[in-house]
Amino acid sequence: xEEYRAMKETILRAVQENVKGTKEEVEKTVEAVTDAVMDxxxxxxxxxxxxxCIVAAVRAxxxxxxxxxxxxxxxxxxPYTVRACW
Length: 86
Hints:
Blueprint: H1 2-18, H2 23-42, H3 48-59
Helix pairs in contact: 1-2
């Protein structure tokens, strides 16, 4: 979760540094942009720490179940669309 917060703070700073206007306009824009970006990535976001843990488990021979959304998931006949467990 720490990496998620760090990403959010980075987005906040980037918008604040690059948007011009009154304090209120900038704050409103910062909030809108940050919320939009974080909402867009939230469902499928994996931090580098999470990825390292997944890779370590797979290398150790453990079966790893990963929840994810696949836009091509509607094609049930394609066996390469979904890989439920590694």
